[in-house]
Amino acid sequence: MASRGAIETSKLKQNLEEQLDRLMQQLQDLEECREELDADEYEETKKETLEQLSEFNDSLKKIMSGNMTLIDELSGMQLAIQAAISQAFKTPEVIRMFAKKQPGQLRTRLAEMDRDLMVGKLGRDLYTQQKGEILTALRKLGEKDLETKSLLWPVLK
Description:
Elements: H1 6-32, H2 39-66, H3 71-86, H4 92-99, H5 103-118, H6 124-140, H7 148-156
Helix pairs in contact: 1-2, 1-4, 2-3, 3-4, 5-6
């Protein structure tokens, strides 16, 4: 009896994560193809995607108000959606890792960005913007050992 609803909850969570992944991938693809689209097409597609995220967020609110067992798992997704909608994070990849509560992957991405900056594969402006997003995401995930000096040294050089 204790597992009653556990399978349904698991499936619902999986479906919600897949929906969030799809929307985040859509935003990431849009950013990657930005140069190939005219400005109006880009803005319209981004607006539509953000509207879908907003609708998804509304659905999460309804689910959370009616099902207490999903609250913790859905809260992270909801925070990520709100961040995407509010433009707090501009990088869909960061939003996805934040939503899935993956600080290890965020730290790995940070190390990759440091390397890319050093070899000239990543511009300083983009590096600074994405690094700020990742550090913010890590802080919001409760990461405590964020040594500012060691994390910012490539920016200061």
